[in-house]
Amino acid sequence: MDPDSNPKPGAQPAATPGQANTDGAAADAASTCIEIGDFNAWYGDYQAIHQLSLSVPRNQVTAFIGPSGCGKSTLLKWINRMNDIVPNAHAKGTLTLKEDESGQEVDVLSPSTDAVALRRRIGIVFQKPNPFPKTIYQNVAFGPRLHLNASRGEMDELVEWALKKAALWDEVKDRLHQSALGLSGGQQQRLCIARAIAIGPNILLMDEPCSALDPASTSRVEDLIFELREQYSIVIVTHSMQQASRVSDRTAFFYQGRLIESGATEQIFTMPREQRTEDYVSGKFG
Ligand SMILES: Nc1ncnc2c1ncn2[C@@H]1O[C@H](COP(=O)(O)OP(=O)(O)OP(=O)(O)O)[C@@H](O)[C@H]1O
Ligand SMILES: [Mg+2]
Q1: How far is 49 from 278, CA to CA, in rounded Å?
Q2: Over the stretch 266-280, which tens digit does the pLDDT of each residue have?
Q3: Prediction pTM value
Q4: Which residues form ligand 1's pocket by a CB distance below 6 Å?
Q5: pLDDT 10s digits, 111-137
Q6: How far apart (Å, rounded) are the C-alpha atoms in residues 127 and 247?
Q7: Domains of the chain: which residue ranges?
Q8: In a mutational test of the pocket of ligand 1, which residue from 45, 46, 65 has the highest number of ligand atoms less than 8 Å from its CB?
Q9: CATH architecture, domain 31-281
Q10: Helix, coil or strand: residue 96
C-alpha cells in the first residue's frame, strides 16, 4: 500500500480549495455528512440539549462554540454513541449519518445500529491526549488490528501512512517501538489523531483538541486540521474564538442547550444575526 494513498474503501474526493461557504445558508443536503433534526438529550431528568437541528457539511471544518455546559460535548458524544455507556443518558430526535457515494444512511440513535461499526466511520479525539500505555506503533495499529485482517507489511504501511497524515512520522519513525507515553503532549495529541484516522473514518470529531497544548503544538494541530479537511468532515469544539476563526469553515453557536445560530464562520464572527452570538464572540460573556 502506498503510504501516501488513502486506504479507506469509500474514500471521498478532495474538497475544492475555496469551497468554504461564504454565505449563511444551511449546508446543501448533497454535501451533508450528518443531519441532526429536532434533537433532544437528557441526563436523567436534566435536559442538556433542546430541539436542535443542524446539518454538518462534508469535507469542511465545523466549529462548535459556546459557554461551558451548553451541550457541545453531549452532542459530540451522541454523534458517535459514546453516551451508550452513561446509564441515565437518553435522547430523542433524528441523528442521521449520510454515507458517501453509496447514498446509504445510518440512523445513529437506532438500537439496531452497531455502535462499534459506527465508530469506524466517526473517529473522536479528546481534550486530553489519551494514548494507550503501549508503543507508538501499537497505538496506531490497535484499531486496524481489531477490524482489518492485514499482513505485517500492510500494517507497517498503514501505521506509516497514519503517522504521516498526522504530521508525526518524522518525529517518531526511529522510536516506533518505544512507549507512546514518552512523547510530548503535542506529539501525543497528534498520535491520537493518527490512531483515530488509522481505522479509516469519514468524520473526525475533536473535543477541544488543543486546550492542553502549548501554542507551538496548537499551531501544528491546527495546520493538520486544515489539511485533513480535504479528506474528512471535521467537527471541532473549541473555547478559542481565534481558533474557530482560523480553522473552521462553518461555526455553530450553542447556548444553554440550544443552537442559537450557525453559518459560515466569517458571517458568525463579523455579522451574526443574533445578539447573543455577537455578545459571545465579542467576549461579553463566556
Ligand atoms: N454524565 C453526565 N451526567 C449528568 N449531567 C451531565 C453529564 N455530562 C454532562 N452533563 C451536563 O450536561 C450539560 C452539558 O454538558 P456538556 O459536557 O455537553 O457541556 P459542554 O458545552 O461540552 O461544556 P464545556 O465547554 O465545559 O466542555 C451540563 O450542564 C453538564 O453538567
Ligand atoms: Mg465539553
Answers
A1: 21
A2: 999 999 999 999 999
A3: 0.88
A4: 43, 46, 48, 66, 68-74, 86
A5: 999 998 899 899 999 999 999 999 999
A6: 17
A7: 31-281
A8: 46
A9: 3-Layer(aba) Sandwich (3.40)
A10: strand
